[in-house]
Amino acid sequence: MAGPDSTPTPDRQGLGRRRFLGYAGSAVAGAVAGTAGGAAWGTGRDGHRDGGATRTGPGAEVSPYGVHQPGVAAPTPPVVELVALDLLPDVDRDALGRLLRAWTGDVEALATGRATPGDTEPWLAAARADLTITVGLGPGTLTAARVDPPRGFEPVPPMRHDRLEPRWSGGDLVLVVGGREGTTVAHAVRQLVRDARPFARERWRQAGFWNGVDPEGRPMTGRNLFGQIDGTANPVPGTEAFDETVWLRDPPWTGGSTLVVRRIAMDLDTWAELTRDRQERSLGRRLDDGARLDDPGPHAHARLAHPMENAGARILRRGASYASAEECGLLFCSFQASLAGQFVPIQRSLDRADALNTWTTATGSAVFVVLPGFERGDWLGSTVLG
Ligand code: HEM
Question: Is residue 139 within 8 Å of residue 54, measured between CB atoms?
């Protein structure tokens, strides 16, 4: 769910739409400043190369090292698995450190296509698979390890439209494993979950997919299962706006982030019954090219989620679709420096009035602190637990 802003539509209605000019106009300003995505993907410029990841041409090896875990800023991968685990009852700070050291070794090996120790299918560790592994700690782990959370890290308060199910919610640890194809991703998940076994057991697992690559292997802004171009207004890696939106700045979390995972069911059947006009007005953007509508109305999703409606708050959205016989939807993932200051106000605005609420229902919710990155010789979480 990554991509630049599409070309903003000119104000066809003239100055009578002064209030709305603020909304459309800010998209122009954002694109120029590089804060709202610019026209990067539409023109072939790739604004999403952070961490060495690229989706153009052949597969790449994403370096596991750096100030940040590389999966956060990387483009949404075609295949992603999210796994939440719960700590076993006797796991304390020292034991957590052992788990994170073991995972560090796994991440180093898997990212470069090497087998992990004890791998019984080492030939599945593929090189240049665009593999990223992102590790986060849930609230229960912070308590067990006696670690203070970063500022603004709090549970997402109950929302009126939520229908949360325990089987898709919560978790003490999270692994977000992304890659260009499912075999490598499933293999990586298996190794990581196996090595966690003395410390934690799986709580939920959710698999998603995203069409962020065109047939020539070039990056593009993908579409969700409503058919909407999704990810357009995300901040662009490498810009100040991105850094301010995403990264934690205070020790010991410097270089980390926070992650919200929301499983959001989408009612594709009733959505499909709407006219195209109604679909576009519910979102506030056009379906063909994702451009903003001149006058989207007060309940349009993209308008209510816009920074102008939320005291400037922004988030980085990295979602993936899911589909089963039972349910289709979006594994909505959002990274931000502060849950309380960024995600929660936007989520509240949407819960209050979003037109899309008629067709979307959150059935799962979880929050995690994403660990800072690590350098060679160091380990994931060393600044927090070391
Ligand atoms: C199934 C649920 C959802 C769908 C189908 C959906 C879809 C979209 C689409 C198509 C756009 C416009 C293109 C773009 O800028 O990416 C958008 C924008 C946005 N959405 Fe969602 N979204 C969903 C849930 C959420 C949630 C839960 C949040 C946050 C609480 C959120 C926050 C945003 C934000 C911040 C924008 C950008 C607004 C702007 O700056 O213009 N969305 N969404």
Answer: no
Q: E strands within 125-219?
A: 132-137, 173-179, 200-209
Instruction: State whether the beta carbon of 315 lies less than 6 angstroms from ligand 1.
Output: yes
Number of structural domains (the chain) is 1
Average pLDDT, the chain: 87
Q: Would the CB of 230 count as within 6 Å of ligand 1?
A: yes
Whether this model's pTM surpasses 0.85: yes
Q: Is the CB of 126 under 6 A from ligand 1?
A: no
Ligand 1 centre to CA of 376 (Å) is 36
pLDDT in tens, 174-200: 999 999 999 999 999 999 999 999 999
86 part of the active site: no
Q: Which of 380, 384, 373 is nearest to 66 (CA)?
A: 373
- Is residue 154 in some structural domain? no
Instruction: For residues 132 and 178, give the distance between their C-alpha atoms in angstroms, rounded to a whole number.
Output: 5
Catalytic residue among 106, 230, 294, 354: 230
Residue 6 lies in a domain: no
Residue 153 lies in a domain: no
